[in-house]
Amino acid sequence: MKRQAIAIDGPSASGKSTIARLLADRLNMDYLDTGAMYRAITLFVLESGADPNNEKEVNALLDRVDITFQKGDIFVNGKNSSREIRTDAVTGAVSAVSSYQKVREKMVDQQRKIAGDQPAILDGRDIGTVVLPDALLKIFLTASPEVRAQRRVNDERSSSTMDYEAILQAIKRRDHFDSHRAISPLRPAEDAVYIDSSEMTIDQVLEKIQELWEERQCTM
Q: Among 64, 92, 169, 219, whose Cα sits 20 to 30 Å from the Cα of 58?
């Protein structure tokens, strides 16, 4: 039995979160930004003074961090951290933190609980392959590194101070890291629909996914 969910995976800055939020409004579905959850843990690690590249130090902090969502904002131990999770420091450390097995186990368990049995949209890097392999619709959303870098420059939510070239190189490094990590590497699910949004508008991407969702609904 397929879960009434849309799993949107893809590389950094591919527009997953924007598309997922807008799609959730269109389809009246719950939305969970899983990438923000990994950023939230990374923020907590940095603020705790631990080394994000030391797996043991990170694992020792997991029982002390509580992540919740309220009206689109993310809270770390009760503090609204929606802005802080978008800083360059968090961006530079999140790939390492999110690669650790115990971190991913904790997040996957929490993500499944939040998704529950309600129709939901989740975006991340391993939603269709690990978190919700039974999702009715799986999307792999991508774009060229150059387009994604420009989107990050234009992202009003971002607290980055890097210029375009620095962001472009950071995106390329993260693409390589995420796709080559041992735990839950970035890759499309076998039954995912691949969408390259490099030359598509947001509305065009939304229309495409909505059409796919309605087609899946009709086949149930």
A: 169
